[in-house]
Write a structure and sequence with these properties.
6-stranded mixed beta sheet; 24% strand; 14 helices; 401 residues; binds flavin-adenine dinucleotide; single chain; 7-stranded mixed beta sheet; alpha/beta; globular; 38% helix
Amino acid sequence: MLARPRILIIGAGIGGAALALFLDKAGIGAALYDAAPADAGPAGGALQMAPNGMHILAQLGLADALAARGAAATTMQFRNARGTLLSRVEFQLAARYGSSAVNATRHAVHDLLVGELRRRGVAIHWGRRLRAIDDRTSAAICRFEDGSDVEAGVVIGADGIHSRVRAALMPDGPAPEFTGLVTGGGFVDPAALERLPPRATLEMIYGKVGFFGFGFVNERGDDRSIMWWNAIPRGAIPRHRLAGMGDEERRAMLLQVHRGWCAPVETAIRRSATPIFMDNIFDIRRLPIWHRGRIGLIGDAAHAVSPHAGQGASMALEDAMVLARHLRDHLQSPEEAFSRFEADRRARAEQVVEAGRRSGNQKRELGVIGAWARDRFVSLVLPSVIRWSTDRLYRYQPVWS
Ligand SMILES: Cc1cc2nc3c(=O)[nH]c(=O)nc-3n(C[C@H](O)[C@H](O)[C@H](O)COP(=O)(O)OP(=O)(O)OC[C@H]3O[C@@H](n4cnc5c(N)ncnc54)[C@H](O)[C@@H]3O)c2cc1C
């Protein structure tokens, strides 16, 4: 019998952790390495787990636990910055696709996955940042920044948008593209706001410049129960500048854009708990390859999608299950497993990245006529577009067995 190749997963974020769980279900051991220190604590803001992501979590037995830590989202409503209601779209998500969408903190999703790995005895090597890969005939040598080397028969890059595995695979490949939008976000106490979103509803507000969204992220009713996020069209903020910006500077920058918007936009920003998140929005539209030989990519490393699509975590979970299934069935030929994975996933992932781009384009700086046309579009056309596009997204429900 041939020896099993040693599988290394670089990145124990949403996709990497889920991949290790599915491999474990198949009786395949994998070693997980992540750059974050073991004691990093909760990181990140909020996200939405769409019904297609919930479907994958259900197959790991984690969907109910996430629903209990998050807030169901079944409706979207759209306003302009003056507060005029432009449209409202109600979805029968649970009846049609088996689950509502769930708003949750990124930490809640990650914590559930990592907790399940721990329960199953799958170790994560924290504090190990990949530097480079030396891909030899017999094995790949993963070189870490702490000076250690680990040999692998298969290397999977689940190391996010600024992936080092991708850089090793394609030193001259495309870099993540800045989309021309910067996003901020945070959490606020519902009691602080003049107006709440209806339960299970995400409210999206479009201005002449930028966008603001908010909704419940859990049912506790404390200062982290409402999530909010925005998008501002502007140049990228250099990384060192972002790192040096305090919460008050971020608040002031956000208020400059949203001054005069309908309630509760300004209040949400003023009263937001800290930290206030801020980042440049990048995506990756198309890579020439997703794998070569024994090295492959999943999640944001392969196809980073902007947050406007609300699909980043769901796509990483789908990737994890589909790749694990192909590795289970073609373990002696990782290249075959990677090829089948790419054939199953590339078109869908790239469509989602494009959808995120189109949605981001509604949030750019518009003149009076542009904003008027956008409002007509949001009133009259967007509800049908959303129903059609989400139906295509949510109907895709691959199964493990
Ligand atoms: C700390 C953090 C907070 C986030 N917060 C949000 C949020 O609030 N809202 C939202 O929509 N999305 C957030 N994201 C992004 C979101 O998780 C991903 O877009 C999505 O889930 C796709 O998952 P992924 O597994 O491909 O990548 P990610 O979930 O980003 O995971 C990538 C993992 O790779 C690790 N890593 C990176 N470089 C290396 C390296 N060189 N060597 C080893 N490990 C490495 C990272 O520490 C991380 O654990 C966050 C990501 C991170 C890492």
